[in-house]
Design brief:
The structure holds two protein chains of two kinds. Chain A is 33% helix and 16% strand. Chain A has a five-stranded mixed β-sheet, covered by helices on one side. The mean pLDDT of chain A is 97. In chain B, the strands form eight sheets. Chain B has a seven-stranded mixed β-sheet with strand order 3-7-1-16-13-14-15, with helices on both faces. Chain B has a five-stranded mixed β-sheet with strand order 11-19-18-17-12, sandwiched between helices. The chains are: A alpha+beta, B alpha+beta. Chain B: InterPro entries: Ald_Oxase/Xan_DH_a/b, Ald_Oxase/Xan_DH_a/b_sf, Ald_Oxase/xanthine_DH-like, AldOxase/xan_DH_MoCoBD1, AldOxase/xan_DH_MoCoBD2, AldOxase/xan_DH_Mopterin-bd_sf.
Chain lengths: 160, 752
């Protein structure tokens, strides 16, 4: 079967690819596009390691068909730092040791950024429910929640 | 312990591997590719138990795009009657786990493997392999596997002279158990069950391998030991270790289960046969069905005490579900369950039970959480019967330095009571708890303790001074949770330079000396020890160089704050020589500066932990929530406190999952019924509270920085601590895990 041509924008860069109708967005990101920062933990939308944004909306890229990216803006972990400067969440995760093995970290960061865009002043409970779609098996979540809340506080301060 | 300043040891520095991990650049095992690479896929058994009469791969081989097909016949053969040990593993069983030999032993057991131009063709080829199975009756649960008429998995296996699924036993004893119980004023005996649980790492197993035309092999994969990968691959393929370069990818969680391999030797056979690099990536379904998990258990524990709370006798029978091949972690429950207590009469017996599920793999303090669930629940009941504070009773019975453990060692430092005391004095333990906060809701508080052996073992490190006067450290241990960060702290401290001038990387099997697995809570202990020895040698070299430049005796030079200085006024007056200055002169003064140190490290004293937890039970829905959790542990010395806390917090939350929600479910055909993260329910962020880690630092006198292993003890107490808290809330004890909503409501509805 002929492949389908898709024009999309990934991390602000316009690009095109050919894909099978059945290919997931995750398959295309990690395969032909070489964006392996997005991880596959389950392939069933249960772990959040493949989280990306699609026109600003948080998605599991394993549950999205690659053809659905046509005309959309996709955001992946590779686009989170601006040039050489880390996003405040990335910096805070390093400072507060909010990662251990790091496999869930790209997805957690994408998810946390989405959360703070919608809710710049979340309670602990809101952070916990906001990140409930991202499994982490190493940290027990404690330092992740603290890092997200601390980043939110600093970003609010910076925005004043 | 050395007297030293602590500018970097104990500092919360940024980990050397951090920036790559928060930007998606870190390469995990599935992130590697090779030119000309083909894809491997594993054909798995559709039966829980079946004899394999024949395998016909001819149709698969004929499919266009298929490059190779392998079965167990392509592997080195390990007859069942001759043990071939590699560490704690036996290659007879590893070989049969990786590719089924005589029998398919569980649903999902690998039967054959295919390499093809893409994953679709590989999957298509798997369907064309014709396997003639003779389906046999199966047994999954321990009770079913040890029944007199149970289907026997292995004809060669005998227990007490009869064919049996009991692969082996382990017995430890002290004193006279019958006399012990005769002396007791109160005796409690209970039977417990726990379900198999998966380690739950988020990164599925994967590898990319290249078998080159000259027979040299390169393996990119994540594991808890690249040397284990090399050794097992060598044994199973017959390729000498010198020709296998195992490169450790970043590891996305292991928790013990990546101390063995499933894919790499198979991929090497496919690569050799096809002449192409081969990549295999497991699906989550594969991971849940056919890797790990930790064993389920059936345990009876009986403990006797005097009226004053003195423990006089303890007996444990621990049946662990090995999965389809021998290898349950018997030393966990048998050795650890009573180890923290000075009990004169002990009889502790473990049974390794095979059944038709995937072979168990290590999981954080293997076997110890099971045993502690049983023993610490019984202790709670004894304390209650005697009207004693459960923490007070633990302190009263703590082992002492010089006591002989039932597993043979003599205790050196014992810091158990410090962990109990830390909880006893903590505001959490004293805080009022409203046990009936609202209708339909009950609250309770529980405590429990835990013990883990800890370990030393082989470790290699290189410390090299770069030409521009900075430091590169190469260790041989995969970093599962911050060991590079800890070693960077140690080396910056000892060399006396800014932390940012030290880089720590992990070497592959052909670039660094043998280093044993990342497991057993050993890596920070062992690698800090060899890094210290290596730094001392490097400092010796640097002092020699300064002495040569100054033309004085090397003994007259001291090393401070990253600089060589005359040791005293008698040595002469010279301006200090910095690391950078000495590095710049290295070649003219004798050559490159650096050392490798390789040791079999010893002196890893055991770890003790005591936990306190508050729970809330919705008595109508059966939902148990953890409200507050405090975990005290002696860590000896926290080289990097954040990652020490992280180990404790992570271990506790895994324990919460084990206690409340995680379990394997099987259908009537013996197939895993919940092989997804949706149905295998690990704690998510909204399930748990903050976990307060009380990091106690009593330096281990046998370690240069005072380190004691940290990673495993934290998962030992939670199961019992939560069960004891649930009892405090409901007045009913739970002897079976998990305490999931259907089981809680069932128990609450029961008549007792």
């Amino acid at each position: 079967m002929a492949k389908i041509h898709v024009s999309t924008t990934i991390n602000g860069e316009p690009l095109e690819y050919l894909c099978d109708a059945s290919a997931s967005m995750l398959d295309i990101l990690r395969g032909p596009l070489g964006l392996t920062g997005t991880k596959e933990g389950c392939g069933t939308g249960d772990c959040g390691a493949c989280s990306v944004t699609v026109d600003g909306r948080l998605m599991c890229s394993c549950l999205m068909l690659a053809v659905e990216a046509e005309g959309k803006q996709i955001g992946t972990i590779e686009g989170m730092a601006q040039g050489g400067e880390l996003h405040p969440l990335q910096q805070k995760f390093l400072e507060m040791a909010a990662l251990q093995c790091g496999i869930c970290t790209p997805g957690v960061l994408i998810s946390a950024r989405s959360l703070l865009e919608k809710n710049p002043d979340p309670t602990e409970e809101e952070v916990r429910f906001g990140l409930a779609g991202n499994l982490c098996r190493c940290t027990g979540y404690d330092k992740i929640v603290r890092a997200v809340m601390e980043t939110a506080a600093e970003m609010r301060e910076a925005a004043r | 312990m050395n007297e030293m300043s602590t500018k970097w040891i104990g500092a919360r520095t940024i980990r050397p591997d951090g920036a790559d991990k928060v930007t998606g650049r870190a390469q995990y095992s599935a992130d590697y590719n090779m030119p000309g690479m083909v894809w491997g896929k594993i054909l798995r058994s559709p039966h829980a138990h079946a004899a394999i009469r024949s395998i016909d791969t001819s149709k698969a081989e004929a499919l266009p795009g298929v490059k190779a097909v392998v079965t167990a016949k392509d592997m080195v053969s390990f007859p069942v009657d001759k043990a071939v040990a590699l560490g704690i593993q036996d290659m007879r069983w590893m070989a049969r786990n990786m590719l089924a030999h005589e029998k398919a032993l569980f649903h999902g057991h690998p039967i054959a493997a295919v390499a093809a131009i893409n994953e679709q063709v590989a999957a298509e080829a798997c369907k064309l392999i014709v396997v003639d199975y003779e389906v046999l009756p199966h047994a999954i649960e321990i009770e079913d596997a040890i029944k007199p008429d149970a289907p026997i998995l292995h004809d060669f296996m005998k227990h007490e002279g009869k064919p049996s699924n009991i692969a082996g036993t382990m017995v430890l004893k002290a004193g006279d158990i019958e006399n012990g119980f005769a002396e007791a004023d109160v005796v409690v005996e209970r039977t417990f069950t726990t379900r198999p649980v998966h380690q739950g790492y988020i990164e599925p197993h994967a590898c990319t391998v290249s078998y080159a035309a000259d027979g040299r092999v390169t393996i990119w994969s994540s594991s808890q030991g690249q040397f284990m990968v090399r050794a097992m691959t060598s044994l199973l393929t017959g390729i000498p270790q010198s020709n296998i370069r195992a490169i450790p990818a970043e590891i996305g969680g292991g928790f013990g289960a990546k101390t063995i391999v499933y894919l790499e030797p198979v991929a090497v056979l496919l690569s050799k046969k096809s002449g192409r690099p081969v990549k295999i990536v497991m699906s989550r379904d594969d991971v849940q069905r056919a890797t790990g998990p930790a064993p389920g258990s059936l345990m009876t524990v009986k403990i006797g005490a005097k009226k004053d709370g003195t423990l006089v006798a303890a007996k444990g029978d621990f049946y662990l579900q090995a999965g389809c091949l021998p290898g349950s972690p018997l030393r966990g429950p048998v050795g650890c369950s009573f180890a923290a207590y000075a009990i004169p009469n002990v009889l502790s017996t473990g049974y390794d039970v095979v059944s038709n599920r995937s072979k168990v793999a290590a999981y954080r303090a293997p076997g110890a959480p099971h045993g502690a669930f049983a023993a610490e629940t019984v202790l709670d009941e004894i304390a209650e019967k005697l009207g004693l504070d459960p923490l007070e009773m633990r302190i009263r019975n703590s082992v002492k330095p010089g006591d002989k453990a039932i597993y043979g060692a003599v205790f050196g430092d014992v810091t158990f009571t410090e962990t109990v005391d830390a909880i006893r004095k903590h505001p959490h333990y004293k805080a009022p708890l409203d046990k009936n906060p609202r209708p339909g809701v009950k609250r309770g508080r529980g405590v429990a303790s835990g013990f883990w052996y800890n370990a030393g073992g082989e470790s290699s490190v290189q410390v090299n001074i770069t030409e521009d006067g900075n430091v590169v450290v190469t260790t041989g241990h995969p970093d599962v949770g911050g060991s590079r960060a800890s070693i960077a702290n140690v080396v910056a401290e000892l060399i006396g330079i800014e932390h940012g001038r030290v880089n720590v990387i992990i070497g592959d099997t052909q670039t660094i000396g043998f280093s044993n697995l990342t497991g057993g809570s050993r890596v920070t202990f062992a690698s800090a020890m060899v890094a210290t020895a290596s730094c001392e040698k490097v400092i010796g070299q640097l002092k020699d160089r300064a002495a040569k430049i100054w033309k004085i005796d090397a003994d007259a030079v001291k090393w401070e704050d990253g600089m060589a200085l005359p040791a005293g006024d008698n040595a002469g007056k010279f301006p200090p020589l910095s690391l950078k200055e000495l590095a710049a002169k290295a070649n003219e003064m004798g050559g490159p500066i650096g050392t490798q140190v390789q040791l079999n490290t010893t002196g890893a004293d055991p770890g003790f932990a005591t936990h306190c937890v508050d729970v809330e039970v919705d008595v109508d829905l059966g939902i148990i929530r953890v409200l507050r959790y405090t975990a005290a542990q002696d860590v000896g010395r926290a080289l990097h406190p954040s990652y020490v806390e992280g180990q404790i917090q992570g271990g506790v939350v895994q324990g919460i999952g084990w206690a409340l929600s995680e379990e394997y479910l099987y259908d009537k055909n013996g197939k895993v019924d919940n092989a997804t993260f949706l149905d295998y329910r690990m704690p998510v962020c909204s399930d748990v509270p903050m976990i307060e880690a009380l990091v106690i630092e009593i330096p281990n006198s046998k370690h240069p920085q005072g380190v004691r292993g940290v990673g495993e003890a934290p998962i030992v107490p939670p199961l019992a601590a939560i069960a004891n808290a649930v009892y405090d809330a409901l007045g009913k004890r739970f002897f079976a895990l998990p305490m999931s909503p259907p089981k809680v409501t069932e128990r609450l509805d029961a008549a007792d």
